[in-house]
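We close this part of the discussion by returning to an individual protein. The encoding preserves chain order, so positions in sequence and tokens coincide. The sequence in question and its structure tokens are set out directly beneath this paragraph:

===
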Amino acid sequence: MEDQQRLEALVNELNQYQNQADLIQQQMETVKASLGELEILDNTLEAIKEGKDLETLVPLGAGSFINAEIKNTEEVIMSVGAGVAITKKVEEAQETVSTQKDEMRQTMEKMAQNLQQLSDIIVKLTPQAEELLQKVKGSGQ
């Protein structure tokens, strides 16, 4: 009976580690998408700074857009969170985006390290669980 209880505890532990790993993977996908958006923003700011692509689509709502020309290429309005936005020079906006991209990359690295640690634990515990399962099956419990 002791082996059965140890097996159940080990399986529960493995499930918890797997759930944590799945959650980290989902979070990594979200961070990756945010990083992609920052890359697009960075490229767009650079094009505006150089005077390229000064036409854009402006959303009107309900999936409708209108062509528009960008007249003020000196400043952008950036969200700073909590529904607040501020005006920044294009160069300042680029610096902000660069900092945000660096922070996102660091976050991704930490998440990848955490995911690797969880994977290592899972790999270590799985053979123990399989061994206990065979023991429990063999003893007929």
Summary: The chain has one domain: 2-139.
